Amino acid sequence: MSKIKKYDAIVIGGGHNGLTAAAYLGRAGKKVLVLERRHVLGGAAVTEEIFPGFKFSVCSYVVSLMKSNVMRELMLPKFGLEILPLESTMTPLENDYLIRTADSDQTYREIARHSKKDAENYMRFGPAMGQIGMAVRPILETIAPNPIRPSFSDLSATKRLFDHVKSLSSKQFEYLTKLMTMSSADFLDEWFDYEPLKATLSASGIIGTFMGPYSPGSAYVMLHHYMGDIDGAFRAWGFQRGGTGGVSMAIARSAEYFGVEIMTETSVQNVIVKNGRATGVSLDNGDEYNSNIVISGLDPKLTFLKMIDKSDLPSDFVSAIKNFRIRGSSGKVNLALDALPNFTCMSGDGHHLRGAISISPSYDHLEKAYDDAKYGNFSEAPFMDIILPSVLDPDMAPPGKHVMSCFVQYAPYDINEGWNDQKREAFGDAVINTISRYAPNIKDIILHRQVLTPADLESTFGLTEGNIFHGELTLQQLFSLRPAVKWADYTTPIKNYFQCGSGTHPGGGITGSPGEMAAKKILGAW
Which residues fall within 8 angstroms of residue 498, CB to CB, at 6 or more apart? Predict the structure, then answer.
């Protein structure tokens, strides 16, 4: 065992939130070390060349929720952040299609082809959701107060939030209450009639969660995905040039600019705790790194049940973390293609391939996919959110070739009899078969495929049960309850041990928010 020089802070995990926390601490003049287990930075926001010439955003694949102040304060555009807008969302149907674009007049006409009433309501729905998103933002950007033993700053934060809620109009308060408690299907039924439109909108309420469109609470997940923006365009989604790993690398370059030291292929075995205080980390190879504080960017299960000996934690806290719901429900299929897919509803190349393609023709399609998962099987006809990164960024594939990213719901972590190679391939086949209903040429143009199950997401990327949000975004796991009551402010029962992953407030997505707010909490108490 060798003793290593001391740091002000050590960050466990080189995911985008860990890197964000490190960058902020480095920006404040602290001596910081980031330790990443894998050979590449980014955690789930990573770009890798899986097959020669073909680059994939292996897990996370789109960007919208990244906070504008994080981009500005860490100078991310200077270090390579460049987000290309996704121009549309197309839902292919058996003999038709639904498409929504950034052009509101075009979107109105497209929806009016199916329902003029829905087209009129959609023009009100977007601004209403935008207003609710803006109303919720102050809550998401506030460090969650301790409701059990509030400090003076907790009381001040609670009063500010209470005053903010009082400032909402009656209509905003009504919508917010409904979104926090209703299912996405029930909420959307109050607005629209056309089934493919409702199903496509509701799909953002099931992404990354073990819920169906009729599950109470799915409306909040839908709202969570509505609160991002790109260059001030609210609710816009985009693709980072070079893949989502480019976001992580921009943050890493910013951190290094501020003096942060980053090491890859360095696996942390546990946090060193002495007299109830974190004093450093021990590596798998036996080396020790000492520091004033330790910050975990891992999910709550790994942060507390793997990195820490349970005897160093209160028993009620251990029980709370064990009960933290982190069920994996999604998989990913990445395809290397010889040509573009040809959708029968909109044949050939076109703007519909420069945006998202949502396999969500009806509530029944989504609910049946969920039914499969409820009973321990992957969905035979899954929901999919598909993009073609190489159409937006040709450098993602060799000339004339393409890559296709398919986020797939549902693939339960606890599948009957467990995941194995045979089930992984059968899951991949179900995905391809579903796509082929709408793009019949898909099977003829696949050169390579990468199929990732929740078990793969766990073993490769360190996501417990393959949960992409580090824990479900359900009402009992939000704000001051994320991941446990009294410990939602990035602190832990162990002094000088902090958390900054997506399992903390305000939750998952490529936001940088947990990392930023954890760093500011630490700096405020330094």
Answer: 293, 294, 295, 296, 490, 491, 492, 518, 521, 522
pLDDT mean over 230-256: 83
Q: Bridge-partner residues for 84, per DSSP? A: 239
Residue 202 confidence (pLDDT): 96
Report the alpha-carbon distance of residue 449 to residue 447 in Å, rounded. Answer: 7
- In order of 8, 466, 483, the CA distances from 210 in angstroms are 39, 12, 17
Task: Verify cis geometry, omega within 30 degrees of 0, for the bond prior to 483.
Answer: yes
Find the Cα–Cα–Cα–Cα dihedral 176, 177, 181, 182, rounded to 10°.
-70
User: At residue 37, what is the residue type?
Assistant: R
Say which CATH class 3-83+242-325+469-525 falls into.
alpha beta
Cite the DSSP H helix spans in 167-194: 170-181, 184-189
Q: How many helices (H) and strands (E) does the chain have?
A: 18, 20
Q: Using DSSP bridges, classify how beta strands 356-359 and 88-92 pair: parallel, antiparallel or unpaired.
A: parallel
Q: Cα angle at 138 between 484 and 505, to 5 degrees?
A: 20
In angstroms and rounded to an integer, the radius of gyration of the C-alpha atoms of the chain is: 22
Is the distance from CB of 438 to CB of 92 less than 8 angstroms? yes
Q: Tell me the three-class secondary structure of 193-240, residue by residue.
A: CCHHHHHHHHHCCCCCCCCCCCCCCHHHHHHHCCCCEECCEECCCEEE
What single-letter amino acid sits at 209?
T
How many other C-beta atoms are found inside a 10 Å radius of the C-beta of residue 455?
21
CA–CA separation, 259 and 22 (whole Å):
10
SS3 content of the chain, % helix, strand, coil (to 5): 40, 20, 40
d(CA 73, CA 77): 10
DSSP per residue over 411-456, as a string? --TT-TT---HHHHHHHHHHHHHHHHTT-TTHHHHEEEEEEE-HHH
Sheet holding 446-452, edge to edge: 97-101, 88-92, 356-359, 383-387, 402-409, 330-337, 446-452
pLDDT tens track for 72-121: 999 999 999 999 988 899 999 988 999 999 899 999 999 999 999 999 99
What is the rounded average pLDDT of the residues 8-19? 98
pTM of the model: 0.94
